[in-house]
C-alpha cells in the first residue's frame, strides 16, 4: 500500500534513474535545490530499493570529493 500511495503521474524507470543518478547525488551533496528533471529521481528512489542502494553507494563514494 505504501508504494501505491507514492505513485506519481509522471515516473521514471530504473534505466532513466541510472542515467542521471550521479547528477542527483552531486546536487544532494552540495545542498543545491533539485531541478525539475531530478525531482523524478527523488520520487523513484522512494519506491525502488535497487536504485536506492545504488544511490547510497554513489553518495558515499562522492562525499569525500565534494567536501574537499
List the helices and strands and how they pair.
Elements (H helix, E strand, L loop, with lengths): L1 H4 L8 H17 L5 H10 L3 H19 L1
Helix pairs in contact: 2-3, 2-4
What features would you describe in this structure?
- With 68 residues, the chain is mainly α.
- It contains 4 helices and no strands.
- The protein has one domain.
- The longest helix has 19 residues, at 49-67.
- It is globular.
- Residues 2-6 have low confidence and may be disordered.
Question: Quick summary of this structure?
Answer:
With 68 residues, this protein is mostly helical.
pLDDT averaged residue by residue = 84
How many beta-strand segments? 0
Helix content: over 70%
Shape: globular
* Oligomerization: single chain
Number of domains: 1
Rg: 12 Å
Largest sheet: none
Q: What is the chain-wise order of helices and strands?
A: HHHH
What percent strand? under 5%
Any key phrases for this structure?
68 residues, mainly alpha
